[in-house]
Amino acid sequence: MSENTSGADNQQERFLVHPFTSEYVVGLVDGEGYFSVTAKIRERKNYRAHEVSLVFGMKLSEKDGKVLEFLRDYFGCGNLHYCRDLRENFCNCIEYQVRSQKDVLGIIIPFFRKYPLKFPSKQKAFKYFCEIADIVIKRKHLDEKGIKKIQHLSKLMH
Amino acid sequence: MSENTSGADNQQERFLVHPFTSEYVVGLVDGEGYFSVTAKIRERKNYRAHEVSLVFGMKLSEKDGKVLEFLRDYFGCGNLHYCRDLRENFCNCIEYQVRSQKDVLGIIIPFFRKYPLKFPSKQKAFKYFCEIADIVIKRKHLDEKGIKKIQHLSKLMH
Hints:
The structure is a homodimer.
Chain A: H1 7-17, H2 22-32, E1 33-43, E2 48-61, H3 65-75, E3 79-83, E4 93-98, H4 101-114, H5 120-137, H6 144-156
Antiparallel strand pairs in A: 1-2, 2-4, 3-4
C-alpha cells in the first residue's frame, strides 16, 4: 500500500477486502435485521388458500447499501430492492430480503441456530419464526388450526 | 445441560456464556452505535472557554438493555443510563455512553482503528471523529481556528 494513501482510503480498502464473518453478521442482524411472517387466508368463490410468507431482511440507508450486497453474497441468497422515500427528513433505502421458503429454511434458519443472536428481542422473534417454520414444514398451516396458530405466533414475535 | 431445557432456555444460556467478540461488536456498532461531538465556545464576563465533548454511544430499547451491560463490560469503560419515553409508540430505552476523554482516546478509538467499521456512513463519522480527537490531543481546540475546525468537522460527520 502506498504511503500516500489516506486513512479513509485504507479503511475503504480494508472494507473491500475484509470478508464478513459469522460474528459480524450476528452483530449486524441483532441491530438491524428482522424476521417477519404474514399468514393470510384467501377466500374466493371456488377456493380457499392458506398463504404463509416467512421473510428475513434488513433495510439500510442507500449510502450503506454496499453492506447489503456483501450480506447477500455472504448468504448466497435473497434480493435487494430500492425504496424511494420522498418524505422530509427521510432518506432513500436499500432493502435486502430472503423470501424464498427454500432459502429461509435451508440457509437463514440453520445459520442463526448455529450462531445465536444475542438481543433478547431478536432471540424471541427468531424462536417464534422457527416455530412457524416448523408448522409450515409439516404442512400443518393448511388446516384451520395450523394457520390460526401461525397468526397467533406471528403477533408474539414483536 | 438438561435435556428438558427448551430452545429458548438454551439460547438464553448461550447468550450468557457466549462472550462478545471484536467482530460481533463491529457489526453491532455498525448497526446501532454512534460517534458524536459537541464543540462550544462559552463566553462570560471574565472568561472564554472552548469545550469539546467526544462521545461514543449506543441506545437500545430497554428490553435489549442487557446487551449494553455486556458491551460496557467488553470495553471496560462507559456508563449506562435509563431514558424514559412517555410518547405513544415509543419505548423506554437504555443508553450506553463513553464520555470520558481518556477512555474515548485510549480505548474506543484504538479499538475501531484495529477493527474497522464496514458501513460507509460509520467509517466517515469515525474518520472525522478521529480528526477531531487529534485536534484535541494537540490542544489546538483551545485556539479560535481549532474550535472552528472542530465545529466544521462535526457537521461533516453525519
